[in-house]
Amino acid sequence: MRIDYRNAKKQQQLKGFGTSSCWWSQYCSGKAADELAEALYGDSGLKLNIYRYNVGGGYDPDNVRVTNPWRLTESLYEFDRETEEGHYNFDNDRTAREFMQKCLDKRNIDMLVLFANSPHWSQTSTGQASGSLLYHTCNLPKMNYKKFVDYFLDVTEFFLKSGIPVTHISPINEPQWKWGGSYVWQEGCHYETNELLEIFHLFAEEIIKRDLPVKLYGPESGELLGLTAEYIDAFSKDETIMKVMPDIAVHSYHCDDKPEDRIEFRKELVEKYSSLRFDMSEWCELPNKSPTDSIKGALISARVIGQDLTLAGFESWTAWVAVNQMSIKDDGKNYSDAWFAAENDFSQYVQAKRYFGMAHFSKYIPVGSYCLDTANKPENENTLNAFSFITPDGKTVSVIVNEGGKTELSLDGDFKKMQVISSDDNEQLKIIYDGDYKTSLTVNENTLLTLILE
Question: Where are the domains of the chain?
């Protein structure tokens, strides 16, 4: 495989990398919180700059079907069903907010998103934040659209007045999925395109009316293609929405092995709506087949990150959750799908090797870097990929993802120095070469490399 740096052209500029604190940070405190804040947002860790905080829909203990405590949220709004009166309690969700502050204290965060999987349970048709009783049916009655808008923006104003630098609000998550029905496992709410558009229009009007210094963000579509184009086309025709929504958020699920979907996404959406910024705001390996002790999870993650940036044209990349619950299967291995796996009370947590799939990007490719069009067409059934970037200080950085056997890599560029950082099943982030520029190197099987060229 050959990387041609001499003829590489700059593409979009990167706005950074991030993750979500959804569901787990509400249980994370003490020593674990200190360690994880540094591992995620500290200079010695991933040095992430994007933070997604979940504005939970809460639950009525007498009318709830979600059984996993990590999928139930503590809302900042409390509602008494008997009196039909509600009030804000900004002491709620204290642990999650304290963790967020620890991360902010690292001074690397410049984008903070408040997002919701569902309206507050008291605003829904079912009185539950887990969706309608019928699949593909909106759980938010039209008469409560404005209540949802006011509630979410009241919470936003509270955060802003508290010194939390909210930059974006994302009130709807994956609107196309069925959510609810006979089996529920988390918060969620389905919206048809017309419902999505009407709610976003109300949010835009109210953001302008309140003169809030935040951007509307979304639609957090659950896939690159499908209904995504329909959503964005609808937004683009609404002048009020477009006044406060220059950034589009999309998830890249269900196409891990389809680079052609990313190429189509760039052509049909990113290039068509060139005035908009496109962010990849949520992904994890789904379904997850990579145990936490295998470098396979890092390799798949790195391939998806690289292809989302260089093929699809996203300007930022955010993982779903940084921490998920332990998930021990029959083979005795842990199949938790996040960067860390924890016991429910955080009495124990372990780092998954997939963490290094992000590390090979975020530790060496800072905000303000540019993508280069050196991304190769996947060879050998997608086993070998290379992604390149130019950093603000003029360095060229390439991330090499080899999911196959040992192979040779040739480099065609005008450089003097070269550093190579490697991760495999045995060692991670190990500097294996630091010296004069070489025009070729061997990439071992199932290995992740970052090349820093000067």
Answer: 15-372, 384-453
